[in-house]
Protein 1
Amino acid sequence: MGVGFVDSHLHLDLSLFDEDRDSVVSRARQANVVAMLNPGHNLESSRKAIQLAERYAELYAAVGVHPHDAAAEEPRGEEAIRELARHPRVVAIGEIGLDYYRNLSPPETQRRVFLKYLRLARRLNLPVIVHCRDAFEDVCGMLEEVQAGTPALQEEKTQALRGVLHSFSGDESSAFRLLDIGFFISFSGQITYPKSDSLRSVARELPIEKVLIETDSPFLPPQPRPGRGKRNEPSFVSHVAEELARVKGLSVEDVARITTGNVRRLFGIGPEIEAGQIAYRIRNSLYLNITNECTNACVFCRRQTNPVVKGHDLRLDREPTFEEIVAAIGEHHGYDEIVFCGYGEPLLRLEVVKQVAQFLRGKANAGETPALLRINTNGLANLVHGRNIVPELIPLVRNFSVSLNAPSAEEYHRLCRSRYGDLAYEEVKRFIRECREGGASVIATVVAVPGLDLEACRKVAEEELGATLRVREYDEVG
Ligand code: SF4
Ligand SMILES: [Zn+2]
């Protein structure tokens, strides 16, 4: 497997690991865990987390005071935590939060300490790791309050508050409220328990780009290993990833790559996301990133802002040659589908697309299992090339996804802002017809932009053009 897992929350500093900490870490390495984050629960544990982070290359520390420990906080606790936060292995403030389930500290004290550390995190521009049990309203209210900022914080021009709610076990509306605040959501072994159906359905609804995985070791052991009641350890984080993959209809490798990329975005740790991916895999399909150029500037496109798809960074610093594309495809075979896609319009590079398609068909003729070839296009290539190119493509590729995006020319113009202005929409429809008449199978896609009349789009696609309609989630490619 390519990228490894990150266990974004564990307590390796606890004495339960005193006997065999080195073996626990080496088992994690063997299980492809490439980074781990150990938050402290009080001053002492924060110090210990840092010491361990100095010892193990994959381990990073966060420093903070857990709600259980809030009442026992040392008199100059905040100063000491602030000092520890300067250590280079410290990447967050945590574990902080509210726990009204066990109420080991009085709620009032918990709130005071939580607020203090949220403010500190904003001042230090560090993300926070938040614990929440039976206290969702207060946790969210306080995050929103600190996010909005006090006049003092605004004056200091602090960055927005960032963070994660760890071992999430709430409902869907709570999850989306956290996303609105700009938070990530982390799932632990709880998601593997037979009784966690509602948690799994929350995970199904959340954009995976906002999800982290963790073990919370030594707590919350996943099923089937090591089983409930046993000590959990970071090597078991793959079970969380497996469950999430099942729920989201992705591969475990997809989940690892995406969640590891998310950790990188939030905490700045773990492997860097490699930019300029030419061939990238999602589930069992291979996507080819031919160009970042396009004739359109769709309102929903992230081509120029953040061209990251399922953890693959598609920003190209130059367009790949035929040879580079072939090299990127490599020796792998057995894909369900190979798709000319990426952030950009592949048919701007018609000759390269034809060459690559020819090459892939040649491989199929040489006895390799043929993958289905598909071109994802905005359907404007005939205007670009000044001729009907469909007859040149049909012998090579028989599957097309064409972005219809609207039920009328006006709506198309508003959403897609094409360089071809008023000509564009009719041209997209003509392209779909040409492909259909050439015997290709065509999917007309629309992005579910709020307010778009999907039923009207379906009519145009199916009744007028004889294509199948596919509605893409706002913000999803692949
Ligand atoms: S047609 Fe596709 S690549 Fe081009 S701007 Fe629109 S969404 Fe982006
Ligand atoms: Zn914890």
Protein 2
Amino acid sequence: MPKTYKVIQWATGVVGSAALRSVVRHPKLELVGLKVYNDDKKGRDAGDIVGIDRTGGIATQDVDEIMAQEADCVLYCPMPWSLEEICRLLETGKHVVTPCPYWFPFVQNPDTAAAINEACRRGGVNFHASGCNPGGIAERFPLTFTGWCNRIDRITMTECGDCSTYSSEGVMRELMNLGKTPEQAERSPIKAMLAKSWNEPIDMIAEGLGSEVVSYEAKHDYILAAEPIETAVGIIEEGTIALNHYRHIGRTREGTEIVQEQIWYVDDIQQNRLQSKMDLPRESGWRIKLEGDVNLDIDIDFPPELNQDQRVAQGLSTTAFHVVNSVPLVCEAPDPGLKTFLDLPMITGCMGTHSTKR
Ligand SMILES: NC(=O)c1ccc[n+]([C@@H]2O[C@H](COP(=O)([O-])OP(=O)(O)OC[C@H]3O[C@@H](n4cnc5c(N)ncnc54)[C@H](OP(=O)(O)O)[C@@H]3O)[C@@H](O)[C@H]2O)c1
């Protein structure tokens, strides 16, 4: 009988709820605990909270209770996240997987990497950060395709999409700057943290190519709302950011340029409610572009029959499912520590209980 893993779900926002539902379906995982923040979720069955059959797992707000609970792994999905909390969980002997940072902190945040590694060593466990972007598009998938190339001049990852139905206040207004004035966005203490978060996957790609980044650059452009725009997190007021265009660029020792580009906006493709228009590369989805002796455009898109709500929901489900599907591999990885995609075997979906050991 293959091993199953006891899992605690930490937070049930958009990503955490999708993660919880997929844990219940996953044949190698068992939900044993749930940490929530909102008062109206406290004491309720996990299944009731996310609209599935009752699970028997009751939600608690008590951090100490979760710390003391026996489990193999915690799916850590809050907004905002806390390094201190992550390290505490690791020290209790529970693996941690998360869509939050830190994907590859060794260069941008060496002290953080050291703290996580030390907590892993004390708990005899592993930490792994995953997701969609970062945690897939930004590093795992482009690195896979570099295996088809020899000389690489530039690697560009572009994410583009109308986010108006994404209901995370924290992600939309803080991380994506939507609804801020450009002055607020430029002065935000989060700006430096965001740059590091996008530089981490740049560093991981460089490391995967056997190189290192010698220079970093960041470019931020904004387009403002021409009128109030209704979104899932309330009105984006006229004169505030309604399209956020980020580029974080790293250049390796050998001159390969690695570009992380995001275009997040709250309008349809016509952009009639914005003060000016951007020449959008696509309506929504992702492009991974490799330039060199092999030139590849890898487009990842949603089928046209999906509506806007479904596109955003499925994009966020990929984040949750990638994290959940990594749990058995993270729990089985040898040598306690911070594990990146460069350390783990291939992460796949799981439909059955057949052992993957060959
Ligand atoms: N890597 C990727 O591709 C990717 C993509 C999307 C999101 N993310 C990250 O995933 C995390 C979850 O995103 P999301 O879309 O699920 O966000 P969300 O919908 O805003 O959910 C966050 C949850 O955090 C909990 N929370 C409330 N107040 C909190 C506080 N003061 N401190 C800590 N947690 C609090 C709540 O849990 P309860 O409702 O259970 O009370 C809330 O629902 C975020 O950190 C985000 O940055 C990563």
